[in-house]
């Protein structure tokens, strides 16, 4: 394992970890709201490290990355886009596949809107959210998230603790082993409530980005997800013409934890195909009809 400090948008120091083979195809893992890089433990401690260059980092305001005070460092799209671009550039990642869980769907779209898609090979959206406004509450964003936002963003530690306990429990269809749950609760609770609050004040619609994607997309989603509802995955499939689905019928919000062996196998296959893929004739025709060049 290697540890890097990458200077992201606005000079924020990002805490980055790397595993695997330096000359292998790269995978950049991006975690979600109130998480950190440790959530990818079942990936970076798996056989994926024998075949790929694995990179995971703590988002600004999370884990061991810097947490700037200014709210606009979290509410504006540019800092998020700049963070991803900085990691790709400073670590010299050659056309990585971006793997984004939950809130990371927004961040990947921030990056694509600002920097385009030429520097990446593909995207794996994992229980990912791509639209955020009040209209999607209860339709695309579920009670597994909405019920816990007030407590998680309150300026009151007991409320934070209770909310995050329930949120972590609700991320999986079946209870995690006790040690895994305790560690996950720890990395969730260390994120400042002000950071959690700032992230959910954004209004985001990524349809424009998804509709113009030319790179292959794997949409991975749990059928029992109550945090980001399966309808969000269906939205990605409907709008993104290069996407295909992998549904996990008895899994919640964390397929990469709940069924890690399947997830890792499918991710490896997707990365290999994305590195050598092309847009097939049928997809090209559909994109032409949609006015996408």
From TrEMBL:
UniProt KW keywords: Hydrolase
UniProt cross-references to InterPro entries, sorted A to Z: AB_hydrolase_1 (IPR000073), AB_hydrolase_fold (IPR029058), AB_hydrolase_sf (IPR050266)
Xref: Pfam families: Abhydrolase_6
GO cellular component, one term: membrane
Protein name, as recorded: Alpha/beta hydrolase
Species: Mesorhizobium kowhaii
Presence of keyword Hydrolase: yes
Annotated AB hydrolase-1 domain residues: 27-265
Alphabetized GO MF terms: hydrolase activity
């Amino acid at each position: 394992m290697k540890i890097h400090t990458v200077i992201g948008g606005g000079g924020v120091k990002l805490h980055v970890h790397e595993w695997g083979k330096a000359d292998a195809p790269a995978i950049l893992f991006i975690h979600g709201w109130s998480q950190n890089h440790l959530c990818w433990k079942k990936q970076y401690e798996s056989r994926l490290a024998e075949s790929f260059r694995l990179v995971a980092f703590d988002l600004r305001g999370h884990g061991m990355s810097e947490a700037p005070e200014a709210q606009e460092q979290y509410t504006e799209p540019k800092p998020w886009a700049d963070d991803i671009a900085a990691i790709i550039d400073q670590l010299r990642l050659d056309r990585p596949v971006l793997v984004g869980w939950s809130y990371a769907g927004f961040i990947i779209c921030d990056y694509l809107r600002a920097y385009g898609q030429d520097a990446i090979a593909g995207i794996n959206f994992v229980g990912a959210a791509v639209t955020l406004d009040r209209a999607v509450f209860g339709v695309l964003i579920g009670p597994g998230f909405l019920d816990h936002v007030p407590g998680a963003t309150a300026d009151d530690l007991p409320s934070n603790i209770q909310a995050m306990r329930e949120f972590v429990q609700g991320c999986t269809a079946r209870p995690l082993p006790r040690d895994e749950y305790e560690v996950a609760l720890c990395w969730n609770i260390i994120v400042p409530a002000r950071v959690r609050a700032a992230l959910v004040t954004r209004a985001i619609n990524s349809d424009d980005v998804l509709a113009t994607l030319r790179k292959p997309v794997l949409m991975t989603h749990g059928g029992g997800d109550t945090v980001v509802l399966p309808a969000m995955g269906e939205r990605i499939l409907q709008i993104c013409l290069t996407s295909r689905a992998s549904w996990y019928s008895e899994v919640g919000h964390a397929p990469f934890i709940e069924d890690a062996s399947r997830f890792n196998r499918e991710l490896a296959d997707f990365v290999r195909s994305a590195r050598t893929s092309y847009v097939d004739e049928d997809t090209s025709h559909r994109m032409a009809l949609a006015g996408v060049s």
